[in-house]
Amino acid sequence: MNLDPVIHAPVRLQIVSLLAAASEAEFSFVRDNLEVSDSVLSKHAAALETAGYVHIRKGHVGKRPRTWLKLTDEGRTAFRDYVATLQQIVGRPLTDASQEAS
After folding, report:
1. Cα–Cα distance measured from residue 11 to residue 37, given in angstroms and rounded to the nearest whole number
2. Three-state SS string across 68-85, please?
3. SS3 content of the chain, % helix, strand, coil (to 5)
4. What's the whole-model pTM score?
5. Angstrom distances, CA of residue 52 to CA of 10, 28, 76
6. What is the rounded average pLDDT of the residues 41-57?
7. How many CB atoms lie within 10 A of CB 17?
8. CA 21 to CA 64: how far, in whole Å?
């Protein structure tokens, strides 16, 4: 039971989680929702793109350049597997160490 190290970084997990709920999201929307800088989001989005989990599309709205992020099918599967692994981990009964010592 291993957590995917590509997704495990907190900002990447937030990116993938946000994108899992949308077909595509504008860079500024993701940045503002995660409350991170452009450079932090760019760095983590590039790592997710390299892993094949996110597709980055650049274009224009009018004359303004825009960037959109989209979770790939591979990214969606990786996120589902990641969440399933977390559920297995946290689904285990919690024990109180002080009661076990009694």
Report:
1. 11
2. EEEECHHHHHHHHHHHHH
3. 55, 20, 25
4. 0.85
5. 18, 21, 10
6. 98
7. 15
8. 26
| 3-state SS, residue 27 | helix
- Identify the bridge partners of residue 68 per DSSP, sorted by sequence position: 26, 57
Domain 5-83 classified CATH 3.40.50.920? no
Vertex 87: Cα angle to 82 and 88 (nearest 5): 100
Please name the residue that has the structure tokens 């860079």: 27
Judged against a pLDDT cut of 90, whether residue 38 lies above it is answered with yes
Confidence of residue 73 (pLDDT cuts 50, 70, 90): very high
CA distances from 68 to 11, 42, 81, 101 (A): 17, 11, 24, 54
Whether 55 and 72 have beta carbons less than 8 Å apart is answered as yes
Longest dimension (CA), the chain: 71
Q: Amino acid identity of 66?
A: R
Please provide the size of the chain in residues.
102
